[in-house]
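ok so heres the complex, two chains, lmk if somethin looks off
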Amino acid sequence: MARHIRLNAFDMNCVGHIQHGLWTHPRDRSDEYNTLGYWQHLARTAERGLFDGIFLADILGVYDVYRGSADAAIRNAVQIPLNDPTLLVPAMAAVTQHLGFGVTANLTYEPPYLFARRMSTLDHLTGGRVGWNIVTGYLDSAARGLGLTVQPAHDSRYDVGDEYMEVVYKLWEGSWEADAVLRDRAARVFARPEKLHRIVHQGRHFTLDAVHLSEPSPQRTPVLYQAGSSTRGRIFAARHAECVFVSGQTRANTRGLVTDLRERAAGFGRDPAGITIFAGATVVVAPTGAEARDLLEEYRSYASVEGALAHFSSSTGVDFSRYDLDEPIQYRPTDANVSALEAITTRSAEPWTLRRLIDQMVLGSRTRPIVGSPVEVADELQAWVAETGVDGFNLSRTVTPESLEAFVDLVVPELQNRGVFKTEYAPGTLREKLQGPGRAHLPAEHVGASFRKV
Amino acid sequence: MARHIRLNAFDMNCVGHIQHGLWTHPRDRSDEYNTLGYWQHLARTAERGLFDGIFLADILGVYDVYRGSADAAIRNAVQIPLNDPTLLVPAMAAVTQHLGFGVTANLTYEPPYLFARRMSTLDHLTGGRVGWNIVTGYLDSAARGLGLTVQPAHDSRYDVGDEYMEVVYKLWEGSWEADAVLRDRAARVFARPEKLHRIVHQGRHFTLDAVHLSEPSPQRTPVLYQAGSSTRGRIFAARHAECVFVSGQTRANTRGLVTDLRERAAGFGRDPAGITIFAGATVVVAPTGAEARDLLEEYRSYASVEGALAHFSSSTGVDFSRYDLDEPIQYRPTDANVSALEAITTRSAEPWTLRRLIDQMVLGSRTRPIVGSPVEVADELQAWVAETGVDGFNLSRTVTPESLEAFVDLVVPELQNRGVFKTEYAPGTLREKLQGPGRAHLPAEHVGASFRKV
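and the predicted structre for the whole thing:
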């Protein structure tokens, strides 16, 4: 039996997420991002398509490198306005049974004691369907919002991250023993105090002396996602992440990232195959290839190069407005954006110019869309899996919600016919759906499991 | 026409909230607090009863003063386990149209930049039905959870609070002008950069240089609740709060608090009648008075004195386990719990003993329940309003959800028959429902309005 492809809908609590400018398309509904009905429809659609989850990105700050201001981002709604992603999950969970939720949260700015409770609450309310995409942040504008003058240096952010993870593992795994909660009405004992443990942590960056406020949730530690592609980020992912989102632009590049990541995970004593790796993908599908290419041209007429450049300038720290179209682009890697620049460096053989960059921005981003009939799209997705070793895809939206609806209606049945996509959900929590029955908690070889009391 | 009484359901994302021990009652469902269905049923019931809102308490930390440990609190589920309240709101909002949501959040521990976005997100998703109960915290155990050795001193917490409010007012009221967002697809302009303002704040406790991440929500600033009863807390409330929750144990005591609060508000140039004041109330109602008194006795047999003492020991900082039943209770007010002790001091003429205290704890708390037929309960509620000047009540639960269901089925119609309770919701946001049509935003005389750009 062929291995099943995993699918997440990749989204963000905002108007323009990856494919900028498409909010101006007459059928696009992304400007209803601030209503519950919009998200509940999206969740129902993803569950109808048996998607593993909805993966919600987040960023704290604005894209203000391009032309030295946030004006282009604001005009084109490039991830601004941007609302909190966690608050979408309870409403989407209420209208679904199986769909998972990967929520991005930046550990640089939230105290671990409160954050651990927030994630436990989500895991309770969703019945164990929550994942956390661990982000350490990269925007100077975010640091200024939080009262810092500049960002902490890149590698030191990951050191803080390792200690932060230790604190939240202790809270999630080590504070309440498995048999602490009795709910015994007759004996009038809700929980047994001797089975609760105060977490005393005296570290370099965090100090804590408290019991976790939440009783154990179905998964305890949420399913851990990570998306760092820098070397330090990959070490962090190999140690902590159960799902990784890689964004290699080419198959060769992605294959390298996947191999490296699985090797590093094995180095931490983990099962390399147990890490679920998602590649980013953008799909434009229609019943026939010709219709799909027409649809791409239609969408393309609404895309925004200005929005795409505003986004990419902040991703790389390079103000692309300062270059003429055919002038070679010089850049100096800075700490704040080393991962995006490493990605460029490995991808690019010939000199970069603005013209080449804009040519790549087909749908308002540098991500090249997969365009075609259901058969063509399925072929391409299967080829990616075969050639790169990824387990599945984070599908970004184009014109929403029709891009997800089209994928569910056209591509999912094709993948099912080929036996490479599930025809029903597995039972249990998100971690059990990914790892198998009875595996609701972190596996014993995961670093987080070492903080268990029993 | 008689003035309408306001009603909130007072609750908390936990098992034991105010009336401790009642979770052991066979019909009580509070141990389902960690499921969405439980809260959606509660919200639907409150909206069926035309309640103004659900008011969600919160506390960061555990009650560990009684016997010098948290054991009694843990055994009796006295606000531990305790999940995050904000995450309940989107799910409850999805099944209601009018119900408001007052969410408690402690400003001592959350960066204003992130918190402001969280509240704006809730206000968007609920269509303008969100209130914020501003808390500065009082538990040392919470401070230890957040990495501090002891709490900041009481009055200085309110000074930090005033500056925190200034920062969030600037973000909510001053960052995006009213006509900043165009959503103009044809012109390809989502928002006009010249209508957005970076908030530059260099204060004693906070530094910020950022635009607010969220576009203006229906109310911009959420409806502001406060519950501080210390002198410094009342000054804070008179300056900022639009709704105040007072907890005077007697009518005379409550009347004094209400008068003081309205006078102080007038001193800040505000309309004293524009502040909506809620008193705490616990109601046990049945079709006849005799049945209600039987029901009280039934409930009472499940109440927990140990749980009530664990709670009250932390509220006051006095370990009541150290006293014999008839020994006069000595206490020294400490900063951390000055408000509860001020309340005792003003209430108590004769010496305090443990026996007197326990006698008062009828249903697992010091709150004396109102018990009777619908007519008797309505009489009592009206007498409270007439004699104290409060606008309404925060109704705490006893055996849940039946206590709210009984109130909605029995007391609400009686209040409506008397013309003192609404028969339909007013249109608009929560602030408009409280203040009148067209008043979705803070009034001009409120301190928060001074931070508007236009």
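quick notes: Chain A touches chain B through 78 residues (CB under 8 Å). thats all i got rn
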